[in-house]
């Protein structure tokens, strides 16, 4: 039995496998797309400056704290697939959180307050993230998703949220729904 570290997967194989789950959507940031396979996002592109120092803005592109992949798309992503080309010998910064558990942990009054409300999401909600997009990719019309989302396959309720991509929650006062960094 071989370990994951010994696994090699050609891009065409990875794409063929990924397409079994649905359409593979290119990331809106054209600068991170693989040159021959635009459906592939290459993370860590240009993460080192001319001085050899790690540029944390690039390194953490779109991932300040936590995020929901594709919240800026009209149809939420069904899945995100990752393929590590280089892995640290220990540690790492990728964590996963259950938005089902987050919903279930909400006090009933907050669940009631959020029920039926939609969030306005865009790639450009976070000022720093906007600077990382190509100029032609910065004008992004917001899309709206329920903050409390019922999963289309399981029927289970969970939060649908991305602090770096949300502009506001419809029907709430700005102080209550706006981003804390404004």
Which features does this protein show?
alpha+beta, single chain, 182 residues, Double-stranded beta-helix
CATH superfamily: Clavaminate synthase-like
Shape: globular
Strand content: 5-15%
Assembly form of the protein: single chain
Give a quick summary of the entry.
This protein is an alpha+beta fold.
Written overview of the protein:
By secondary structure, the chain is α+β, with helices and mostly antiparallel strands. The protein has one domain: Double-stranded beta-helix. The protein contains six helices and five strands. Strand 3 (148-150) and strand 4 form a beta hairpin. The radius of gyration is 18 Å and the shape is globular. The N and C termini lie far apart (52 Å).
SSE blueprint and pairings:
Layout: H1 11-19, H2 56-59, H3 99-105, H4 108-114, E1 118-121, H5 127-131, E2 143-146, E3 148-150, E4 157-159, E5 166-169, H6 174-177
Antiparallel strand pairs: 1-2, 1-5, 3-4
């Amino acid at each position: 039995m071989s370990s994951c570290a010994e696994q090699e997967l050609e891009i065409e194989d990875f794409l063929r496998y990924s397409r079994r789950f649905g359409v593979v959507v290119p990331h809106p940031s054209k600068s991170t797309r693989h040159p021959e396979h635009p459906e592939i996002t290459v993370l860590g592109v240009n993460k080192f400056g001319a001085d050899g120092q790690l540029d944390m803005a690039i390194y953490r592109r779109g991932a300040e704290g936590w995020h929901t992949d594709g919240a800026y798309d009209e149809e939420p992503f069904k899945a995100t697939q990752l393929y590590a080309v280089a892995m640290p010998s220990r540690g790492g910064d990728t964590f996963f959180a259950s938005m089902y558990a987050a919903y279930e942990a909400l006090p009933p009054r907050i669940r009631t307050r959020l029920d039926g409300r939609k969030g306005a999401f865009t790639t450009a909600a976070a000022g720093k993230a906007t600077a990382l997009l190509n100029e032609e990719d910065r004008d992004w019309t917001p899309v709206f998703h329920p903050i409390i989302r019922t999963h289309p396959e399981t029927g289970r309720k969970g939060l649908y949220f991305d602090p770096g991509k949300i502009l506001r929650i419809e029907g709430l006062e700005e102080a209550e729904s706006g981003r804390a960094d404004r």
